[in-house]
Specification:
With 201 residues, this protein is an alpha/beta fold. It is built from 5 helices and 10 strands; from the N terminus they run αββββααββββββαα. The chain has helices at 3-19, 58-63, 67-94, 168-172, 176-199; strands at residues 25-29, 40-43, 52-53, 56-57, 98-101, 111-120, 123-124, 129-130, 132-141, 147-157. The strands form 2 sheets. Strands 1, 2, 3, 4, 5, 6, 9 and 10 form an 8-stranded mixed sheet that branches. β9 (132-141) and β10 (147-157) form a beta hairpin. It is globular, with a radius of gyration of 19 Å.
């Protein structure tokens, strides 16, 4: 094989491997896998206790905001929970796994407990921009809270450049909440992939 062909083949192989890389970082994982063949999981709402917004505790971040900004921020967090839940439920269903949202006691053998401890709103300006980010810790537990698996998931969403041809989805990303909703949908899909990898190893 010519050197140039060999390099091209190696690059293609690397790209293929990179495309298969997991979208999560494992913190702990029960062994043997207790989720093999399981088809039903309960899902708790996102826990935001101790949330940091960029480099500030959430209450300090909100202290500099007016009433409308405060309400908007709280609504954005709720929409993050909604979009994450929707993406996880729908993607898991495609794999034959039922994920049922719950807010309390459940008869499910296993419970999915998402925790978000860091959010960055990102920004767009004519001369510079920065993507939003959400970092989530996802725990799979027993009903009494014993952690079996724990993984970390993350997503970033860049602001599109404003113009008259933006789609509705891209236009939504011009707002803080819109970028976070996109992050939530991505993380929901990653979470479903992780769940499927444990149910069908």
């Amino acid at each position: 094989m010519h050197r140039r062909s060999f390099i091209a083949a190696a690059l293609l192989g690397f790209a293929a491997l990179a495309g298969c890389a997991p979208s999560w970082r494992v913190v702990t994982q029960a062994s043997p896998d207790p989720f093999v063949g399981q088809r039903y999981f309960a899902l708790m709402p996102i826990d935001y206790v101790g949330l940091q917004i960029i480099d500030k505790a959430e209450d300090r971040y909100l202290a500099s905001k007016d009433g409308d900004d405060y309400q908007r921020h709280m609504a954005d967090k709720e929409s993050v929970n909604e979009e994450f839940t929707k993406a996880l439920v729908e993607r898991a269903k495609e794999e034959g796994i039922e994920v049922a949202p719950t807010t309390g006691t459940t008869s499910a053998q296993f419970v999915i407990r998402p925790y978000v401890g860091y959010m960055n709103p990102g920004f767009y300006a004519v001369v510079s921009s920065a993507p939003s980010q959400i970092r989530m810790t996802l725990r799979l537990t027993t009903p009494d809270g014993k952690v079996l698996d724990e993984v970390q998931l993350s997503s970033r969403t860049a602001s599109p450049i404003p113009n008259t041809s933006l789609s509705a989805a891209d236009a939504d990303k011009l707002s803080i909440g819109g970028r976070w909703r996109e992050d939530a949908r991505a993380i929901g899909a990653y979470a479903a992939r992780y769940l499927e990898s444990r149910v069908n190893p």
